[in-house]
Amino acid sequence: MRIVQLRKSRLFKLVAAALCVIPLLYILFLQSNHENIKFSAFSSKNVKTKPQLVNELGNFEPQNVAERTGPGEGGKPHILRDDQQNDASQMLTEFGMNMVCSDEISVSRSIPDTRIPECKHWNYPEDLPKTSVIIVFHNEGWSTLLRTVHSVINRSPPQFLKEVLLVDDFSNKEHLKGKLEQYIMRFDGKVRLVRNKEREGLIRTRSYGAKEARGDVILFLDAHCEVNVNWLPPLLAPIYRDKTIMTVPVIDGIDFKTFEYRPVYQGGHHYRGIFEWGMLYKENELSQKEAKKREHNSEPYKSPTHAGGLFAMNRDYFLSLGAYDPGLLVWGGENFELSFKIWQCGGSIEWVPCSRVGHVYRSFMPYNFGKLAQKKKGPLVTINYKRVVETWFDDKFKEYFYTREPLARYLDMGDISDQLALKERLKCKSFEWFMDNVAYDVYDKFPALPPNLHWGEIGSVALPSLCWDTLGQDAPAFISIYECMGDNNNGDLSQLIRLNAKGQLGVGERCFEADTQGIKLVFCRLGTVDGPWEYDEISHTLLHRIHKKCVALHPQTSHLSLMPCDTVNTYQQWTFKELQPK
Ligand code: LR7
Ligand code: MN
């Protein structure tokens, strides 16, 4: 009996040992063939939630893609014949891009794989969340919209693509009506179309799309994009790991005239989305220190903000943050609102180098802001910024914004009490926390702004109806004199000039410099907030401290230049006229 018992217990031990060892051996076996490692479900224990870099091509990489020939294939520029140029320029005016060129390029064209080569070797979980790709559009061209749709269908693993949701923001172009409804029928329900009953602008339209979407993840694209090879899994993997992560692809450029597809940058360089204090979106190269925090150069990294158009997020998470502030109208500032909200309220943003998407940058905006804008007084985008700043910034930082954009103080931003209540309810952190821990590199490029000593129109004492005017030109450009706009200004910033306590004279984000030929509007030197200018309130002269000369108006040519200072010469006298918009 005892012997049997002993044997039994030995057998038991043996079996128990085998039960432990066999899986261990199996795991070791799997690891030695690491291309075989696949992911188990997110819900089970012992899961690998990080994608693995493997020797073989990673999963979801396309195999044996047939080479294509034709106009624009391979992302090559497509050059039109001379006799097409007239039509082309008409289309450019109507759509902001050359639709004649686009129409000749296949909606399923090939584009160059612009990823870091290593990207092909990532293995991702097999059970990533299902995604609604949401494309909002207002009066977009036909072939650019459809190329966006086809590229998504062609280059996304179907099991992760719940749907492509097209949301029409009250377009009035014929091709976007019945013809579009007819066309999408070929996608057997995978492409859905819903429409606004009136013009809502892109921001509200996206919030509507998110509510309407049926996927677990919502992923927004502009209506003139082409997604690149295996773009989707790398965007979904971080969200699978943690649903409070927003992921952002790297955005390549598609030329608005030739539709050439160009990588935004090559090699291992990475950029983060930041902003300057007037809330213009900027990008800043990721520091070596930050880059090295990751094991592999193709891994995602954290970014304070994003350009706005292209990103993925867990749908419930987006809605739990209140979607976009419904008080933001049409265009602009929503990228900051969502970014600040995510970071300050406990989430994060990751840029994903292995996901590339091309976007057509237009030369100008081919649409107006519609009725929504007419109800508002002043520049709509600045009003949007003011809402975002007043909701998410601490007082100290609000001052930086108003110093850079003095007009904003006077603008009516509407009611933000719901936004403040949300911030309270979600127990969101301060903007200072965000600056110190997330957006610390903003200061390198855009240090805190000293207060303005003067702001407004600079009028001539000799010819009082004339004011300095940038005429809306881009820097670098010579500055001129033009009829003062005064109260008729209506949000045009080209005559609103500020002189700060450190001698920087600027308009918006640009600065004034002087050379032998005249006074020039230039890019402010990055990382600096000072300048050479000094205004004397008694003599009304504007001195350039380095050249030791004053700005003079040439009576015959209306040209501005530096002259030896002559304090009694009215052509060298200027007054700052601060606006008091009603
Ligand atoms: O009233 C409108 N209703 C719309 O549905 C106006 C526009 N739209 C649609 C439009 O058809 C397009 O599909 O909204 C989308 C974006 O409009 P664009 O393409 O005119 O915007 P943009 O590319 O000039 O502007 C960028 O900033 C915007 C600020 O509100 C949005 O966030 C855009 O999505 C954003 N685009 C990108 O981020 C692409 C990459 C740019 C960079 C860097
Ligand atoms: Mn766009």
TrEMBL record:
GO cellular component: Golgi membrane
Keyword Disulfide bond on entry: yes
Species, as recorded: Zootermopsis nevadensis
Presence of the UniProt keyword Ribosomal protein in the record: no
Top-level class of the enzyme under EC nomenclature: transferase
GO molecular function terms listed in the Swiss-Prot or TrEMBL record: carbohydrate binding; metal ion binding; polypeptide N-acetylgalactosaminyltransferase activity
Source species taxonomy: Eukaryota, Metazoa, Ecdysozoa, Arthropoda, Hexapoda
One GO BP annotation of this record: protein O-linked glycosylation
Major localization listed first in the record, in broad terms: Golgi
Domain named Ricin B lectin: residues: 455-577
Cofactor(s) the record lists: Mn(2+)
Name assigned to this protein: Polypeptide N-acetylgalactosaminyltransferase
PANTHER family in alphabetical order: N-ACETYLGALACTOSAMINYLTRANSFERASE, N-ACETYLGALACTOSAMINYLTRANSFERASE 7
Localization: Golgi apparatus membrane
Topological type in the membrane: Single-pass type II membrane protein
Domain of life assignment: Eukaryota
